[in-house]
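Structure (tokenized):
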């Protein structure tokens, strides 16, 4: 399964609400972009350093999305 199909399936497990699915998909895309563009997972010199004052914000944002995903998986029969 490719990543986009996997994310779509995960989002469907997280919520049946179509509007919420759109929001979750956008959040996955935004956080993927943050992870790719900033020195979070990648430490190449061409990546943007994360300002210390937003580290907690990014962590909480990613944690909330992952927590929701885990809950969706846990409720799957």
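Design, position by position:
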């Amino acid at each position: 399964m490719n990543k986009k199909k996997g994310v779509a399936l995960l989002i469907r497990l997280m919520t049946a609400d179509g509007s919420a699915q759109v929001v979750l998909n956008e959040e996955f895309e935004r956080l993927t972009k943050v992870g790719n563009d900033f020195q979070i997972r990648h430490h190449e010199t061409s990546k943007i350093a994360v300002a210390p004052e937003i580290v907690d914000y990014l962590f909480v944002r990613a944690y909330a999305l992952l927590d929701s995903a885990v809950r969706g998986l846990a409720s799957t029969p």
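Reviewer-requested clarification: The chain has one domain: 3-74. The CA atoms of residues 16 and 72 lie 10 Å apart.
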